[in-house]
Structures are given as C-alpha cells and as structure tokens.
C-alpha cells in the first residue's frame, strides 16, 4: 500500500470517528415528549402542634413517579438519557431544611432504593420509563413549593409540588 493510500485510509477513518462522535443519539428525538405518571404532588398535613401542643411531628411521604419519554406517535422510547431535577419553585423559599429528596427506584417496587443527588442523569429502561420516588417532609408548619423536572436534549417537562399545613 502506497503512502498516499495509507494517508487517505487514515484520514477517512479519522473522519468516520469524528462524525460518529458528533451529537448524542441517546437524547430524545425532536417531536418526542416527556410525561409524568401524575400531574402534580400536593400534600396538606394537619399539624399535631396546631393547638400549641409541642412537640410537633415532621413526617415524610414517598410518592413514586414514572417518567416516560414518548415518540411523536406516543410509543415509549427505551435507553434514552434524561436529566432529572428536584428544586424549589422560583417564588418559594427553602425552609432551611432538607425537605425534598429524590430516590432512584431501580427495581420498580415504588420505594426509593438509592438517594441520588440532583441533577440526576440516567436513562429510561427498555420500556421507556424511568422510575423515581420523591420524598417530601411535612408537618411542624413546613410550607413550600417546588418542581420535579426532566429533560432530554431539547425536550423537557416539569411537575409542580406543593406542601402546606
């Protein structure tokens, strides 16, 4: 093989590697959508200390959420990367406590298996669903709002969270 042929072959191989590395095919395609298994989470917990009785009790509630990525024909898309975020709403202030937690529900039993840091980057399962659990603490006068958000490429969606007494 001549030097010129080796050079051309090498250049072609490099071009193929560069082109195959461009873009992220694991993101949701244009025209797809992200959906949640619920429209929102709203908790109203009667405060045990409402009559002035102390101590009050802080409780937590776990809410399983299925996040799906669907193509333009509403077919589930498996193995699609997504970023999941749990945050306080822009007009809400943190009560200064850790009151919202996100858990990966790896085995799909509706219980949080592993506490994850947000933003949490993972992918949908083969069935097009990513299963998570949102843990919210309430009671003792805690009142706050937030959002669970998910995005993949240019596709995103949010779900509102409200906790009050």
What is the gist of this entry?
With 165 residues, the protein is mainly beta.
Annotation keywords:
mainly beta; elongated; five-stranded antiparallel β-sheet; disordered N terminus; 165 residues; five-stranded mixed β-sheet
Structure description:
By secondary structure, the chain is mainly β. It contains one helix and ten strands; from the N terminus they run H-E-E-E-E-E-E-E-E-E-E. A five-stranded antiparallel sheet has the order 1-3-8-5-6, with no helix packed on it. The chain has a five-stranded mixed sheet with strand order 2-10-9-4-7, with no helix packed on it. Strand 9 and strand 10 form a beta hairpin.
Give the termini distance in whole angstroms: 79 Å
Gross geometry: elongated
Unreliable residue stretches = 3-24
The main sheet comes to: 5 strands, antiparallel
Cα-based radius of gyration, to the nearest Å: 22 Å
User: Numbering strands along the chain, what is their spatial order in the largest sheet?
Assistant: 1-3-8-5-6
Secondary-structure content class = mainly beta
Beta content: 35-45%
What is the average of the pLDDT values?
A: 82
Q: Total number of helical segments?
A: 1
Per-chain topology:
Elements: H1 3-21, E1 33-36, E2 40-44, E3 59-70, E4 81-88, E5 100-104, E6 114-116, E7 120-123, E8 129-138, E9 144-152, E10 155-164
Parallel strand pairs: 2-10
Antiparallel strand pairs: 1-3, 3-8, 4-7, 4-9, 5-6, 5-8, 9-10
């Amino acid at each position: 093989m001549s030097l010129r042929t080796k050079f051309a072959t090498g250049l072609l191989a490099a071009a193929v590697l560069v082109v195959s590395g461009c873009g992220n095919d694991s993101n949701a395609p244009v025209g797809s959508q992200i959906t949640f298994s619920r429209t929102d989470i709203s908790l109203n917990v009667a405060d045990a200390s409402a009559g002035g009785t102390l101590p009050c009790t802080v409780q937590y509630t776990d809410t399983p959420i299925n996040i799906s990525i669907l193509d333009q024909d509403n077919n589930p898309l498996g193995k699609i990367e997504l970023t999941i975020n749990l945050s306080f709403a822009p007009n809400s202030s943190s009560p200064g406590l850790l009151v919202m937690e996100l858990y990966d529900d790896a085995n799909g039993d509706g219980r949080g298996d592993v506490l994850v840091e947000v933003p949490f980057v993972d992918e949908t399962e083969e069935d097009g669903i990513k299963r998570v659990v949102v843990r919210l603490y309430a009671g003792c006068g805690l009142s706050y709002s937030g959002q669970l958000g998910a995005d993949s490429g240019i596709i995103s969606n949010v779900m509102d969270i409200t906790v009050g007494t």
